[in-house]
Amino acid sequence: QQPVQSPQAVILREGEDAVINCSSSKALYSVHWYRQKHGEAPVFLMILLKGGEQKGHDKISASFNEKKQQSSLYLTASQLSYSGTYFCGTAIFTSGTYKYIFGTGTRLKVLA
Amino acid sequence: DTEVTQTPKHLVMGMTNKKSLKCEQHMGHRAMYWYKQKAKKPPELMFVYSYEKLSINESVPSRFSPECPNSSLLNLHLHALQPEDSALYLCASSHGQGTRGYTFGSGTRLTVV
After folding, report:
1. φ and ψ at B83, to 5 degrees?
2. Testing the interface with B: which of A98, A104, A109 to mutate, by most B Cβ within 10 A?
3. How far apart are CA A29 and CA A39, in angstroms?
4. Within 10 A of A27 (CB to CB), how many other CB atoms are there?
5. pLDDT one-digit tens code per residue, A10-50
6. Three-state DSSP class for A5?
């Protein structure tokens, strides 16, 4: 049930672009994206709820495909501050309530 | 106040000790969560409290005991832990089912010796 992310790790130079994918074998109710820096808490980036949705702010955007089984995070003109581990996450309805699980994670390092 | 506050930030305990982790939020969120995170791994859900009632226990060993005294506080009581329980313990909260995202605390780095 855990969403699978690709790539597992990526190294970029400042100013380069990156795409991180999050895939599920089943349709997702929603997908969230988080960034976690080493030793810190995950920070919420954005949420996508509808199939075909695209949203973003500044140079970070995301899409959710029509079947709601894949989401992609787009990092444009990367900055040093973008370094960290990116997780997608989703809520699964079970036992009468939702529980939230994270994807496998993608480690991103931006070099000067 | 848009934060989740966790204390302590670091904790070293022996296998026979009893300790507690604390989490507090004042955003009016009615769902609170405990996650465990090992190095280079995603956070793993342990417990979910919804309206101060335990709604999910992810088959966590009984040496971890959660408590939700009120809508703003969440505790995790620890007793007779094992070295493999060493990890970052994260608390999070959300509105309702979390469709607007989750707010995480900065975590407690736990080392069991």
Report:
1. -55, -30
2. A98
3. 29
4. 11
5. 999 999 999 999 998 888 888 999 999 988 889 989 999 88
6. strand
Dihedral sign, Cα of residue A82, residue B38, residue B57, residue B113: negative
Chain A: closest CA distance from residue B98 (Å): 8
**Angle subtended at Cα A98 by Cα B10 and Cα A61, rounded to the nearest 5 degrees:** 75
Tell me how many degrees the CA angle A37-A26-B91 measures, rounded to the nearest 5: 35
**CB-based contact, A91 to chain B, within 8 Å:** yes
Q: Which tokens hold the place of B109?
A: 């780095």
- Beta carbon pairs, A and B, within 8 Å: 63
pLDDT digits (tens, 9 = 90+) for B48-89: 998 999 988 888 999 999 999 999 999 999 999 999 999 999
**Cα distances (angstroms) measured from residue A2 to each of A5, B43, B81:** 9, 12, 27
Contact A77, A68 (CB under 8 A): no
Six token digits for residue A98: 């939702």
What residues of chain A, 15 to 44, have a C-beta less than 8 Å from chain B? 30, 32, 39-44
